């Protein structure tokens, strides 16, 4: 994707996210009455009374939210969201004709959540939006900054789940919707943050720093940072080495360190995000 512009890449992610959202609804959620939050969740519930497709209902409900976004953020910052919302609604109704894959609500909740999570990941990575309750939460947060987006999302999605239970007269559909939301958030977090997760390895050694850092860098392709340290118990000088590694590289690093200095003290600290210096490409940090 080197020859693709940033804007083109964004729209690839948006279209991919829209497709996955639409597949989640048509293949698993809609026919099983699982209203897993968002405007689509409201549309699933309201669709019991109004003979319109989920995509069409979603677009109708999106109109006042998108108009508010234009007023607050301006046309320039909202036009892409409007286009994405229209594409999303069209895709949902188009794929709504596909047959549901399962009538087992638990299976539908899990796999619908997986597709939702994948779609959310693509939209987040591509910095895209299809409007809906996510945009509504951001707009409300600007008006009421003491209410976080996360709290607003929880409140709104919770209300939609309760609405579905009332409309369908079934507590079970609400519980399945909660499973879908949980699976969705778990999958999205693993994808969005998992690709940048790793470990910080700290090595305290009395050996020459070059003896340990050279084989570490040569074998793993990771950079090593050295600090001067002093053992407060012994009063002796120590080299403190730090490097960022992937979880699968922990054993290899431990073995390399022990081969050089069996007395070395090593601490491995989980890191939620490793950002910058082309870490994902396993290049050296200069």
Question: Can you describe what's shown?
Answer:
Helices cover 60% and strands 10% of the residues. With 286 residues, the protein is α+β, with helices and mostly antiparallel strands. It has a 4-stranded antiparallel sheet with strand order 2-3-1-4, with helices on one face. Strand 2 (225-230) and strand 3 form a beta hairpin. Helix 2 packs across helix 3. The longest helix is centred in the N-terminal third of the chain and has 24 residues, at 6-29.
The average pLDDT score comes to 85
Structural class: alpha+beta
What is the percent of helical residues? 55-70%
What is the H/E string? HHHHHHHHEHEEHE
SS field, number of helical segments: 10
Largest sheet: 4 strands, antiparallel
pLDDT < 50 runs, ≥5 residues:
281-286
| Biggest sheet, spatial arrangement of strands | 2-3-1-4
Task: Summarize the topology.
Blueprint lengths: L5 H24 L8 H9 L7 H20 L1 H21 L9 H21 L6 H12 L5 H20 L2 H22 L5 E8 L3 H12 L4 E6 L6 E9 L4 H11 L4 E7 L15
Antiparallel strand pairs: 1-3, 1-4, 2-3
List the keywords:
286 residues; alpha+beta; 4-stranded antiparallel sheet; 10 helices; 4 strands; disordered C terminus
Gist?
It is built from ten helices and four strands.
């Amino acid at each position: 994707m080197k020859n693709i512009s940033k804007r083109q890449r964004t729209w690839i992610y948006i279209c991919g996210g829209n497709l996955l959202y639409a597949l989640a609804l048509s293949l698993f959620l809609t026919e099983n009455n699982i209203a897993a939050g968002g405007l689509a969740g409201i549309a699933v519930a309201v669709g019991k009374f109004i003979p319109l497709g989920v995509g069409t209902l979603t677009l109708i409900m999106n109109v006042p939210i998108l108009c508010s976004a234009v007023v607050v953020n301006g046309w320039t910052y909202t036009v892409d969201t409007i286009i994405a919302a229209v594409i999303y609604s069209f895709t949902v109704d188009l794929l709504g004709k596909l047959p549901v894959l399962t009538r087992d609500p638990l299976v539908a909740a899990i796999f619908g959540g997986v597709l939702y999570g994948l779609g959310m990941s693509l939209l987040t990575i591509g910095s895209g939006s299809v409007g809906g309750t996510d945009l509504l939460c951001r707009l409300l947060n600007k008006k009421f900054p003491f209410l976080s987006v996360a709290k607003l999302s929880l409140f709104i999605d919770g209300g939609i789940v309760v609405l579905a239970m009332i409309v369908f007269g079934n507590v079970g559909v609400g519980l399945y919707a909660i499973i879908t939301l949980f699976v969705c958030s778990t999958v999205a977090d693993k994808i969005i943050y998992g690709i940048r997760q790793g470990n910080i390895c700290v090595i305290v050694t009395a050996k020459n720093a070059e003896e340990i850092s050279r084989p570490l860098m040569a074998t793993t392709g990771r950079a090593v940072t050295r600090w001067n340290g002093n053992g407060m118990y012994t009063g002796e000088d120590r080299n403190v080495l730090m490097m960022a590694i992937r979880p699968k590289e922990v054993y290899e690093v431990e073995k390399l360190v022990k081969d050089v200095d069996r007395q070395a003290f090593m601490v491995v600290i989980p890191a939620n995000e490793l950002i910058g210096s082309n870490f994902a490409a396993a290049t050296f940090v200069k």
